[in-house]
Every structure is written in C-alpha cells, then in structure tokens.
C-alpha cells in the first residue's frame, strides 16, 4: 500500500462520520459537550424594559426643559416592580435591573438629581431610552442562541441557562477502547527492573487527550505479542460497544508486528496503512461496521502525535463538532531550518512571545520519536510540510499548541 498524505488520511479518518445519537444533560454538566441541535431561546433577555442605572424612571417629555421637578410616586427594584403607571409630572425611584414602570421611557441617573421629600428635581435633560435596556436587546424568545455542532464553553453554559434551558441536547460521548501490545511492556511500579522491560506510557497520554476531546475511555490493558491474544482484545472492544478501538504498538511490518494481521482476521477493513508522516509513519485506520479502528505506532512520541492528529479529530467528528480537525496558529521560526524531505514533519518545539503579540517557534534539538522528555518539554508541534524548502529564522510557520 503506497504512503498516503496526512491530509488524505485525516479525511478518511474524520471525514465521513455520522455523529452519534443525542442525549439530554443538565446545563450544569454541559461543559465540553457538543450540541446536537440548535438551541433556541425560551424567553427574551431582558424580558422587559429594565433600568441600567440607579436613578429615577421618568417620561423624557417631562424633563425636555430643565430645571424640572417631578413627584415621586413609588419605587421599582430588581424583582419588585412598581405596580402602577406613571403619568405626566410623575416619576418612580428605580434601581439597576428593575423593570421600567408603565408610562416611563428613560432613566435619570441619581447623580443628576436632588430629592426633597416627595419631589425629585433635575437640571440635566435626559433623552428617551437613555440608561434603559430594552426588552430582548440581548436575545428574543425563539431566536437561535447556540448552533448544532458547537462545543459548549463556560460562557455558553451561561447563555443556555439565561435562555431558560435546564437541560440541553448533546451528542453522546464516543466510547474509546485502548489497548497496548508488546511482550516488553510492564505497568508502572510492577516491573522486575530487567533491562528488557519498558514501562507502559502511551495509554496514559492517549486516554487523557481522548477524555479531553469528550470521549469515555476503556483501558483494555497490555496484550502480549500473540495473534490470538490480540484478536481476543479486538473482540473484547467490539463486544463492549466501543465506537473507536485504539491500539498502540505492532503497527509496522516486522515479524512481531501483529496488529494488522489480527485486525484483518477480525474482519476490520484497513483503509490506511503507512502515512507520509514524521513521527508516525506506520499508522493504520480501518472499520468494522460502525466501529473505527486506529492502529498507532508503539514509539511514545509517535503514538501521542498521531493521537493528536487523528484520534482527537475522530472523537470530535463523532460528536458532530463542526471543526474537528486540529487547529494551527501562525508563528515565526526561532532558528534556520533545512529543507524537508517527502514526509510531513511535526516537530516538538518551544514557543516564546516575540514581544509584539506573535509567537516564535523553536524546534527542540533532538526529535527522536522515543524521547518522552523532549515531548514533555515542548509547547507545540511545529509543522513542516512535505518537500518544504530551507527557511531562515524569522520565516513564517504554523504550529499546533499543546492544549494541556
């Protein structure tokens, strides 16, 4: 199978995806979820004309000529509106957030007034609708407030609540099953200390980025390099109702790389196997029915980078996210870069502020795909396109900042 470009692989992985079924959740629990349908306002905000200041609610015509003196006939406070109507020559003491009384159309701020018992005097004319928040000026009943495919933020939760939604419809969380393969792997703190052992790390990073993207994660543990054992793990994920099975390790073509044969034996149709990508060339993607399978490399940096580039967009797409693919930011190179080869490169890099609101991206000096210390020290992935020419320090570039 010929090497596929990163763009084509991403289109296959996260492109033709039908969002998962919707479910309703309390608005207080909606952060990070993706709206399954447009959210319409159930009421207007504000629901009536309201005062934006402390002062007096008046008829603008009564204070067109100043000085003016009006009779104070009552009070309107937030949650305790004035019950009557205001006629010519009258006013009502009003406070911020209170409903404007019937008959009034403006608010004179208290700094521009004097009070003598039941009389209010002002020498500052105030035009109609000054210091007034009109009914529906924020949003009106029936107006769309949040659109389907939008990922809910803390600010969106406030808007949904203000639109009088106790619950909102969101896409079900994708169920992601994780499995790592390798005879050399041991769990942290459980090894013998033998030089032949490697402590498991990939699953922890993949689980974290999957959950951050909105998934539920099932960790199926470590599976030895045995075809029947790997097939059994694949079947376990399918039977557990996984929407996505993610494996780490065994994705290449060596004698002990058994993931591809195991997937094929379990009727997974592979669409992607080997990408023109660094790090992460031996990535696999396939399907069995509605279940999608990502076979990631075993090298920890390759695994994590491929998780960011492909797993996260897939999880987002399954929730109906309208912008599932990874986001990039503009930056400038912090050092000279040689010409790139035929593989698209995602280099671990640090980011610094250039002092003018921009970013400077400098690749770390060692880019080996097994070095977790380099990955942990990085702030972003610096993107170098396939066959990119040499570039000098200060040249424009694109980066994918790490969200965590």
From TrEMBL:
Q: Which EC class is the enzyme in?
A: transferase
Q: Which cofactor does it need?
A: Mg(2+)
Show where the MoaB/Mog domain sits.
177-317
User: What SUPFAM superfamilies is this protein classified in?
Assistant: MoeA C-terminal domain-like, MoeA N-terminal region -like, Molybdenum cofactor biosynthesis proteins
What keyword terms does UniProt attach to this protein?
Magnesium, Metal-binding, Molybdenum, Molybdenum cofactor biosynthesis, Transferase
Q: Name one Pfam family in it.
A: MoCF_biosynth
The record, for InterPro entries, names:
MoaB/Mog-like_dom_sf, MoaB/Mog_dom, MoCF_biosynth_CS, MoeA-like, MoeA_C_domain_IV, MoeA_C_domain_IV_sf, MoeA_linker/N, MoeA_linker/N_sf
SMART domains according to UniProt: MoCF_biosynth
**Catalytic activities:** adenylyl-molybdopterin + molybdate = Mo-molybdopterin + AMP + H(+)
Instruction: Spell out the molecular function terms from Gene Ontology.
Output: metal ion binding; molybdopterin molybdotransferase activity
Q: Name one GO cellular component term.
A: cytosol
Q: Under which EC number(s) is this enzyme classified?
A: 2.10.1.1
Question: In its UniProt record, which GO terms are filed under biological process?
Answer: Mo-molybdopterin cofactor biosynthetic process
Pathway the protein takes part in = Cofactor biosynthesis; molybdopterin biosynthesis
Instruction: Keyword check for Ligase, yes or no.
Output: no
- Physiological role: Catalyzes the insertion of molybdate into adenylated molybdopterin with the concomitant release of AMP.
The family database entries (NCBIfam families) matched by this protein are listed as: Glp_gephyrin (NF045515)
Question: What PANTHER family is this protein classified in?
Answer: GEPHYRIN (PTHR10192:SF5), MOLYBDOPTERIN BIOSYNTHESIS PROTEIN (PTHR10192)
Task: Indicate the family of this protein.
Answer: Belongs to the MoeA family.
Give the protein name, as stated in the record. Answer: Molybdopterin molybdenumtransferase
Q: Tell me which species this is from.
A: Xanthobacter tagetidis
